[in-house]
């Protein structure tokens, strides 16, 4: 299988070359030339597999045999060795219609670990086997940065620079990134919001001369391997939910999503043949995705700081991948739509296209008040503590689940990462020891203006071995 760009101007690439490219050289996002169809017999076989074996089966459909099976198994085993639950992503039942898929058992207590611990091992493998220079550049709204840093810190042949919005992530998220003092890690705290950080990243990756000279590699979900790794837990969640609730139930999935990457992984799983009933997007007050699903208009709005900062995003970078399939894989139409977005700040789909969107996706933007109310309600009624992002998912479950259906709602982070919100409810939670110990550690980061030229200067110094995080 080869990979192509959503905008159609990149020659087909193999799997490893696609991962190394990250953002398509034409500004588009890389997708497989075809999505593998999984038969009912294969689904029946897969449903009994543990997470790691399921990962290998799904990954192998896309990797073109570029990674020998023995090597792939070693990468998967190393990636999930640090997870605190042997299931990797265990499913918890809260009531007869609501199940929680816990995605926070990795080293940084967030769902990004599922993909990024593998990605760190994968980049290390490519560096060693192909002699590639790996200089990772990424932006984070909080969780990606910590997970990516944890995945590659101290690894030979790899350097990583992460941009995060200054004072717009939770304190735990900030500490998880900035208490790392390995020489191959640089944290840049940008005086702006996540969209500013993401814009700078995409501009740097679009500068093909700079990208090539400095061997830039992507860690954000513009990189297809992130999408693919996340697809695994959709299959795993569906199988475990069907096992617990019974095969007769229709199974929905509710996904907290800001950058459209996590929900697109579910869209991919469904196109492969996983019979998910409803794919539900849960957002917060930065609700560009809800507005698109309900009205057909995709237009960034006013940035809002919320209790769920990892979803404080107005420009969803993976939206283009969904648009590609919505437009029946017509790259010329995708390019035209993205050109309109760049020039006019909005795009609109109408008529049959909008009806198709609404048949494929449902969406809800939860308010801060709803989040706090649901956290308190489920703590009181079930004893289970939701983090604010997970609460968005539960709000969407309450809005869209119907008789004869169950919903698997994704718990995308441990509540200890967002204690600022939890404390507003006078709930005192016990911190995991790994998080409790962060507060005493020294921080290392460089605070900079929202300026591409300054980011470029910092990167050039870092890759040359001259830059260090400032304490």
UniProtKB/TrEMBL annotation:
InterPro entries: Ser/Thr_deHydtase_PyrdxlP-BS (IPR000634), Thr_synth_N (IPR029144), Thr_synth_N_sf (IPR037158), Thr_synthase-like (IPR004450), Threonine_Synthase (IPR051166), TrpB-like_PALP (IPR001926), TrpB-like_PALP_sf (IPR036052). The keyword Nuclease does not apply. It holds the Pfam family PALP. Pathway: Amino-acid biosynthesis; L-threonine biosynthesis; L-threonine from L-aspartate: step 5/5. Keywords: Amino-acid biosynthesis, Lyase, Pyridoxal phosphate, Threonine biosynthesis. Residues 2-80 form the Threonine synthase N-terminal domain. Its cofactor is pyridoxal 5'-phosphate. PROSITE patterns: DEHYDRATASE_SER_THR. Residues 89-397 form the Tryptophan synthase beta chain-like PALP domain. It is an enzyme of class 4 (lyase). NCBIfam families: thrC. This is Threonine synthase. It comes from Saccharibacillus alkalitolerans.
């Amino acid at each position: 299988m080869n990979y192509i760009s959503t905008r159609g101007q990149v020659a087909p690439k193999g799997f490893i070359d696609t991962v190394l490219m990250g953002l398509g050289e034409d500004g588009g996002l890389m997708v497989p030339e075809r999505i593998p169809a999984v038969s009912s017999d294969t689904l029946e076989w897969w449903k009994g597999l543990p997470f790691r074996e399921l990962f290998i089966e799904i990954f192998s459909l896309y990797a073109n045999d570029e990674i020998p099976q023995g090597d792939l198994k070693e990468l998967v085993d190393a990636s999930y060795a640090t997870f605190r639950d042997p299931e990797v992503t265990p499913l918890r039942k809260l009531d007869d219609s609501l199940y929680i898929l816990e995605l926070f058992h990795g080293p940084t207590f967030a769902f990004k670990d599922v993909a990024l611990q593998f990605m760190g091992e994968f980049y290390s493998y490519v560096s060693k086997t192909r002699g590639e220079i790996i200089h990772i550049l990424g932006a984070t709204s909080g969780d990606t940065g910590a997970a990516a840093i944890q995945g590659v810190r101290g690894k030979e042949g790899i350097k990583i620079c992460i941009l995060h919005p200054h004072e717009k992530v939770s304190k735990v998220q900030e500490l998880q990134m900035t208490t790392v003092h390995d020489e191959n890690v640089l944290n840049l705290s940008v005086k702006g919001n996540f969209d500013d950080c993401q814009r700078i990243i995409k501009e740097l990756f679009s500068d093909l001369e700079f990208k090539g000279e400095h061997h830039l590699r992507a860690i954000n979900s513009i990189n297809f391997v992130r999408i693919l790794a996340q697809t695994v837990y959709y299959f795993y969640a569906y199988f475990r939910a069907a096992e617990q609730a019974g095969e007769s139930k229709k199974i929905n999935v509710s996904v907290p999503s800001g950058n459209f990457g996590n929900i697109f992984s579910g869209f991919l799983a469904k196109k492969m043949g996983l019979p998910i009933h409803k794919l539900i997007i849960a957002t917060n007050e930065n609700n560009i995705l809800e507005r698109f699903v309900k009205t057909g208009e995709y237009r960034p709005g006013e940035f809002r700081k919320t209790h769920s900062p990892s979803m404080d995003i107005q420009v969803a970078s993976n939206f283009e991948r969904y648009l590609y399939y919505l437009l029946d894989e017509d790259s010329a139409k995708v390019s035209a739509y993205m050109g309109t977005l760049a020039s006019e700040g909005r795009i609109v789909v109408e008529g049959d296209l909008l009806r198709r969107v609404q048949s494929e996706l449902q969406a809800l933007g939860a308010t801060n008040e709803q989040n706090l109310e649901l956290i308190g309600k489920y703590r009181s009624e079930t004893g289970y503590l939701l983090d604010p992002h997970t609460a968005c998912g539960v709000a969407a479950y309450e809005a869209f689940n119907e008789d004869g259906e169950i919903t698997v709602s994704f718990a995308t982070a441990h509540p200890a990462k967002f204690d600022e919100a939890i404390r507003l409810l006078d709930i005192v939670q016990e911190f995991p020891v790994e998080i409790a110990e962060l507060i005493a550690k020294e921080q290392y980061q460089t605070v900079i203006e929202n300026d591409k030229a300054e980011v470029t200067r910092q990167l050039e110094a870092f890759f040359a071995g001259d830059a260090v995080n400032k304490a």
